Recover the amino acids of this structure.
C-alpha cells in the first residue's frame, strides 16, 4: 500500500522554500515572456474575461465595503414604509433607490449585504470542496492502482447522490444556517475537482521533471504538492469558478425552499423566496435579487471561461 | 393608481393565458368550489383541530343548539328545549322528524352515543377541550337526554351550539372511526358524497334536510372543498375560474385582486388572536432568559403591535391586550397591564435583567411568515437575536406540547366559541399547551369556569387575565383579519367567527 507517504500531505506539502526547481517545466518568472505576463496580456484582449472580472470585482468591492456604501441598515424595518417601489416606478423615492421589502427594509442595502453571503458561501464551499477533491484526485492520479480504484469508487458513490436532495435532507436534519449550508455544499461539491485533478495528474505523472524529482529522492507528498499541483493549477481554477457559481445557485435554491440561511439574513435566495407572493403584482421584489444572482453567476462563469482561454490558449476552440 | 391597476390587469391576463383550465366550478354547474391551504387530518369533527374541519362540520352536521350570529341568542336546533335541572345536569328535549343523510332517524341514542363515545380514551378525541366538561350523557326517553357535567359549567350552551356535532349511533358503530372518516354521515344541510385524500371533499345539498331549521335550507346544489396549499395557485385558480371562493388572501394581494374582473374582495376581522407564548419554565433551554419576568416584559415593549396591525395585518384587525378575543364572554382588557411600543424601556429592562447585549433565542411559527419576521426584526432592534423555526401547525403544536419551543407565535380561533374559556382553557389552565402552569392563574380560571353567576365569572377571568399580562406569560398581539375573494356571481357574507356559511350563500 503506497498510501502511507501521503497520509499527512498538508504537513509534508508545506515547502520549506518556495524556490522554483530547475526541473520545473516553465521558464523562470523574471523574464518578460513569463506565462503569467503572457496570460495577462491575452486576458486584456479577451472580452469575456474582462467583463467577468469587472463585474465580479464590483460585487466583491460591494461585499467588502458594504457598511460604507449601503445607504441604510439592512435589518432596520419600518412597516409603515413597506413595499415602496424602486426609483424607476411612479412612486419611487431617492431615499430607497431600489424600494423597500415587505417589512420596510431598504432593498438596495439588503442587496449589498446579500452579496457578502453569496460570495462567502461561493468561496468557502469552493475552498472546502477544492481541498477535498484535489487531495483525492492527486493521490488517485499519481499513485494509480488500488488508490485510484478506491478514490474512483468514492467519486462514483458521491456522483450517485443527488446534491440538492442530500443538501435538503441535511439542512432539515440539523436545521438551516449559514454554517450548515457552507459545510454541506463544501462536502458535496468536490467531485469535479477530484475527476479533473485525477485526469490532469495522470497526464503529467510520467513526464521527465516528475521522474527527475523522484530520482532526486523527493517524498511523494513533496512531489504532489510542489511539482504536480502547480502544473495543474490552471484547470483547477476553472473548476473552482464553476463550483463557486454552482454553490451560489444551490444556496439560493436551499434558501428559497426555506432550508438555507435563515431570516433576517439578507441572502439573495431568501429575498427571491420572500418575493414570490408578490410576483404577480410587485414583480420588482423578486426580479431585483433574481437579476443580481444571474449577473453574479454569469460573471463567475465568464471569468472561469476567460481564465481557461488565456492560460491555455491551445485548448481554445 | 391607474398605472398600478393596469399592471395588475396585465399580470392577471397573463395568468389566465398561462392556466386556461376548463371551468368546472361556478354558477353554470351550480357547484361552489372553495379552496383552503390545510387538509383536516380526519374529516370527523372531533378528530381534527383545523379550521377547514370546523367549516366542514358546520355544513355537514347539526348541533343541538344554534347561536344566531347576529343577535347572539340561543335558538332550538336538534334540541327544541333545554333546562338546567341543577348546575351539573342539563336536560334537553330533542326534535322529531329529523333524519341522517343515510336515512336513519335522529334520536336520543345518537346524542348519548356521540357524547359518551368522544369522552372515551379509545376515541382519541383531538378536540378534548371542547368536550371534557361533560361527565356522561343519559337517555331519559326517545326524545329526552340528560347531560351530566363534571362541575358547574355555565358556558355549556355555547359549546353545544358549536364544536359538538351529533353522529349517527347505529351507522358509526357499524363502520367505526375509519369507515366514518371515509364516508361521514350527519344531519346537516350538505351531504358528503366523496372524501378524496389530498384533494378535498365533495358535497351536495341534502334533499331531506329538516324544514324550519334556523339556518334555512341551502340554495346552492353542490359544494366542493379543495385543498390547494400554495397561496399563489389558489389566487390563480380563482382568477381563471377554476374555483369560486378563497380566503386568507394576504392584504397586499387582496388590494390588487380588487382590480381583477369578476372577483369580489371582502375584508373582515375574525376572532382569531395571534399571541407570543413564552417558555417561562425554561423547559426548552436551560437558564432560559424567559424565566425572568423583566425579559418577557422587555419583549412585550419591543414589539410595535399597532404598526403591525396598521400596515401588515390591516382589514379591521385590532391590537389585543388581554389573552383572548375581546368579544368573548369574560374577556376584558380593563385593568389589564398594557405594553405600548417602547424600545428604550425594553432595552432598560433587558439591562436590568442582566442582558445588556441581548441574547439568542428560538421562535416557532406556523402561519403568516411575514408577521413572524416582523417580530424578529423588532426583537433584533433591542438586541435579541431570534432563530426562526417555521413549521406546519401539527408539527409545531407537538413541539410546543413537548416543551421544545422558547417563544411560540401562536394563533387561536377558539373554535368560534364566544366564551373566554375556549381560549384561556387551552393555554393557561394547566393543559398540554400551558407553558406556564401558574397555580394562581389556574385557580382563577377554574373558579371562573365553574361559577354559575356570570358576574363572578367575569371577576375571576379578569383576575386571571391581569395575572397573565402582569407576569407577561404571553404577549397577546392582535386579532386577525381575513380577506375573502370570490367570484362576483356569488352572494356571500362573512362573520367574525371565521366560519364561512356556505349553506347561506347563493348565486346572484
Amino acid at each position: 500500500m503506497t498510501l502511507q507517504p501521503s497520509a499527512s500531505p498538508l504537513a509534508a506539502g508545506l515547502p520549506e522554500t518556495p524556490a522554483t526547481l530547475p526541473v520545473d517545466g516553465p521558464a523562470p518568472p523574471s523574464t518578460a515572456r513569463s506565462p503569467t505576463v503572457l496570460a495577462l496580456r491575452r486576458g486584456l484582449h479577451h472580452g469575456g474575461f474582462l467583463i467577468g472580472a469587472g463585474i465580479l470585482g464590483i460585487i466583491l468591492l460591494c461585499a467588502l465595503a458594504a457598511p460604507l456604501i449601503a445607504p441604510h441598515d439592512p435589518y432596520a424595518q419600518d412597516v409603515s414604509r413597506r413595499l415602496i417601489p424602486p426609483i424607476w416606478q411612479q412612486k419611487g423615492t431617492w431615499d430607497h433607490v431600489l424600494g423597500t421589502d415587505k417589512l420596510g427594509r431598504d432593498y438596495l442595502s439588503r442587496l449589498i449585504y446579500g452579496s457578502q453571503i453569496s460570495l462567502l458561501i461561493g468561496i468557502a464551499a469552493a475552498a472546502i470542496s477544492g481541498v477535498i477533491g484535489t487531495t483525492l484526485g492527486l493521490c488517485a492520479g499519481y499513485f494509480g492502482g488500488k488508490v485510484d480504484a478506491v478514490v474512483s469508487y468514492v467519486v462514483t458513490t458521491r456522483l450517485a447522490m443527488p446534491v440538492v436532495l442530500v443538501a435538503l435532507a441535511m439542512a432539515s436534519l440539523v436545521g438551516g444556517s449559514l454554517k450548515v449550508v457552507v459545510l454541506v455544499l463544501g462536502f458535496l461539491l468536490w467531485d469535479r475537482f477530484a475527476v479533473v485533478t485525477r485526469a490532469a495528474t495522470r497526464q503529467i505523472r510520467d513526464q521527465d521533471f516528475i521522474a527527475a524529482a523522484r530520482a532526486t529522492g523527493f517524498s511523494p507528498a513533496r512531489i504532489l504538492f510542489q511539482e504536480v499541483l502547480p502544473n495543474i493549477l490552471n484547470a483547477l481554477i476553472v473548476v473552482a469558478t464553476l463550483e463557486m457559481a454552482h454553490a451560489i445557485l444551490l444556496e439560493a435554491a436551499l434558501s428559497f425552499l426555506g432550508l438555507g440561511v435563515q431570516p433576517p439574513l439578507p441572502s439573495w435566495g431568501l429575498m427571491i423566496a420572500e418575493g414570490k407572493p408578490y410576483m404577480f403584482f410587485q414583480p420588482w421584489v423578486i426580479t431585483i435579487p433574481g437579476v443580481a444572482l444571474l449577473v453574479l453567476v454569469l460573471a463567475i462563469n465568464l471569468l472561469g471561461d476567460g481564465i481557461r482561454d488565456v492560460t491555455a490558449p491551445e485548448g481554445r476552440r | 393608481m391607474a398605472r398600478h391597476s393596469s399592471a395588475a390587469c396585465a399580470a392577471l391576463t397573463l395568468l389566465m393565458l398561462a392556466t386556461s383550465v376548463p371551468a368546472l366550478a361556478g354558477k353554470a354547474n351550480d357547484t361552489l368550489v372553495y379552496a383552503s391551504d390545510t387538509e383536516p387530518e380526519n374529516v370527523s369533527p372531533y378528530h381534527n383541530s383545523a379550521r377547514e374541519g370546523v367549516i366542514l362540520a358546520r355544513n355537514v352536521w347539526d348541533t343541538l343548539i344554534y347561536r344566531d350570529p347576529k343577535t347572539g341568542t340561543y335558538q332550538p336546533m336538534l334540541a327544541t328545549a333545554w333546562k338546567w335541572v341543577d348546575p351539573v345536569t342539563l336536560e334537553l328535549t330533542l326534535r322529531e322528524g329529523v333524519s341522517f343523510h343515510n336515512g336513519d332517524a335522529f334520536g336520543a341514542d345518537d346524542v348519548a352515543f356521540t357524547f359518551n363515545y368522544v369522552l372515551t380514551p379509545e376515541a382519541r378525541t383531538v378536540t378534548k377541550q371542547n368536550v371534557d366538561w361533560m361527565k356522561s350523557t343519559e337517555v331519559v326517553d326517545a326524545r329526552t337526554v340528560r347531560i351530566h357535567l363534571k362541575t358547574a359549567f355555565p358556558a355549556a350552551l355555547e359549546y353545544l351550539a358549536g364544536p359538538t356535532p351529533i353522529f349517527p349511533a347505529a351507522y358509526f358503530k357499524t363502520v367505526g372511526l375509519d369507515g366514518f372518516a371515509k364516508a361521514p354521515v350527519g344531519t346537516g344541510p350538505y351531504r358528503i358524497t366523496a372524501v378524496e385524500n389530498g384533494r378535498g371533499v365533495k358535497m351536495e345539498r341534502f334533499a331531506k334536510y329538516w324544514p324550519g331549521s334556523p339556518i334555512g335550507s341551502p340554495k346552492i346544489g353542490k359544494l366542493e372543498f379543495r385543498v390547494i396549499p400554495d397561496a399563489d395557485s389558489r389566487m390563480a385558480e380563482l382568477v381563471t375560474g377554476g374555483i369560486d371562493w378563497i380566503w386568507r388572501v394576504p392584504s397586499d394581494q387582496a388590494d390588487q385582486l380588487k382590480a381583477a374582473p369578476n372577483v369580489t374582495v371582502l375584508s373582515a376581522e375574525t376572532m382569531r388572536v395571534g399571541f407570543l407564548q413564552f417558555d417561562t419554565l425554561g423547559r426548552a433551554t436551560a437558564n432560559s432568559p424567559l424565566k425572568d419576568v423583566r425579559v418577557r416584559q422587555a419583549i412585550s415593549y419591543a414589539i410595535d403591535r399597532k404598526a403591525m396591525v396598521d400596515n401588515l395585518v390591516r382589514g379591521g384587525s385590532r391590537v389585543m391586550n388581554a389573552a383572548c378575543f375581546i368579544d368573548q364572554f369574560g374577556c376584558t382588557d380593563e385593568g389589564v397591564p398594557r405594553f405600548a411600543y417602547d424600545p428604550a424601556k425594553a432595552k432598560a429592562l433587558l439591562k436590568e435583567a442582566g442582558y445588556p447585549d441581548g441574547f439568542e433565542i428560538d421562535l416557532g411559527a406556523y402561519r403568516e411568515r411575514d408577521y413572524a419576521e416582523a417580530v424578529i426584526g423588532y426583537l433584533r432592534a433591542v438586541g435579541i437575536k431570534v432563530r426562526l423555526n417555521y413549521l406546519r401547525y401539527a408539527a409545531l403544536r407537538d413541539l410546543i406540547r413537548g416543551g421544545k419551543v422558547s417563544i411560540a407565535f401562536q394563533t387561536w380561533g377558539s373554535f368560534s366559541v364566544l366564551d373566554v374559556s375556549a381560549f384561556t382553557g387551552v393555554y393557561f389552565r394547566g393543559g398540554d399547551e400551558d407553558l406556564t402552569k401558574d397555580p394562581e392563574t389556574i385557580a382563577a380560571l377554574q373558579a371562573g369556569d365553574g361559577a354559575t353567576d356570570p358576574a363572578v365569572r367575569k371577576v375571576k377571568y379578569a383576575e386571571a387575565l391581569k395575572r397573565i399580562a402582569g407576569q407577561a406569560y404571553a404577549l397577546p398581539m392582535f386579532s386577525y383579519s381575513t380577506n375573502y375573494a370570490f367570484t362576483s356571481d356569488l352572494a356571500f357574507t362573512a362573520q367574525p367567527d371565521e366560519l364561512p356559511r356556505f349553506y347561506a350563500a347563493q348565486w346572484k
About this structure: The CA atoms of residues 212 and 218 of chain A lie 9 Å apart.
